Amino acid sequence: MARLFVDTDKFADSEGPPIVEAFHSALKDLVRRKLDESGGDWNAFVFGKAQELITAKEIAAVEARLLATGHRYTVSAMISQRERPDAYKPVAGSEDPATFSFEHPDARVEAADAQGREVRGQGDNVVQGKTNTVGIARYFRNNDNVMHCLNEGVPDNTIAIIDDSGGTLTAPILEKFKGVICAGGTIRSHLGILTREYGIPCLMNARISGIHEGDTVELETAGPAKTGEMYQRGEDGSVRIWKHASKN
Question: Which positions of the chain have pLDDT values less than 50?
């Protein structure tokens, strides 16, 4: 049977749960079978009849077997769970903007320092800057948030907190942000690339806790940027996220 690039990819991720690995294997076997049936090489297959030979129905059948086991995907954006509640885990936490906050179990939390800054998480710095980035936390989790800012403008000093690493949701207003905290992805994700090109400080793969709408937050963007090699070596290298004590 045909071999695929992922069979020998030295940058492949480590093994996941057995049921997920079985799902990946089923997809790979489908591609192998279709590549063999095509009678050509890999390039001819990919740039030729792959989309005709591998049907959406066949892929859906593989996914159906995974979901039948009770496995559910973890959302990277709220819209996924809304459109396919059968396939995604429920989003935990209150949806009231006034009280909602991401609560990651691995968030680094420390008491306030002499400057009144509480460590409330960490993330992967996309680009090392000269200074840290301070602004007002505002959550962007759905189209309503984005449309409001398109109509009314993005408030000054906005540090956008989002869960979609694709960057599509906030693309129309991205350049107006002072900084970005993203709960998913890596420095190589679409959002990481966009923020780098716009020159917007950004922390990807952020794990935060206790940061609410309107809080003053500080991103340790003067800290080292994470590299692709660090991901491969399993090194953390994350920088801190602080919440400033309220002045009220």
Answer: 10-11, 94, 248
In this prediction, residue 234 carries a pLDDT of 87
Give residue-wise pLDDT tens across range 82-118. 788 899 887 655 467 778 899 999 999 999 999 999 9
From 116, 159, 110, 117, select the one nearest 138 (Cα to Cα): 159
Position 92: which residue type?
A
CA dihedral 54, 56, 58, 60 (to 10 degrees): 150
Q: Could you tell me how far CA 177 lies from the centroid of its own chain?
A: 18
pLDDT digits (tens, 9 = 90+) for 201-210: 999 999 999 9
* Cα distance between residue 102 and residue 95, in whole Å: 11
pLDDT at site 26: 92
DSSP string, 173-236: GGGG-SEEEESS--TTSHHHHHHHHHT--EEEEEEEBS--TT-EEEE-TTSPPP-HHHHHHT--
Distance CA 80, CA 192 (A): 20
Closest CA to 240 of 132, 135, 115: 132
Tell me which architecture the domain covering 109-244 has in CATH.
Answer: 3-Layer(bba) Sandwich (3.50)
CA distances from 220 to 98, 133, 137, 143, 180 (A): 25, 7, 15, 28, 12
Q: Which residues belong to CATH 3.50.30.10 in the chain?
A: 109-244
Find out whether 138 and 223 touch, Cβ atoms under 8 Å: no
In the prediction, which pLDDT does 131 show?
Answer: 97
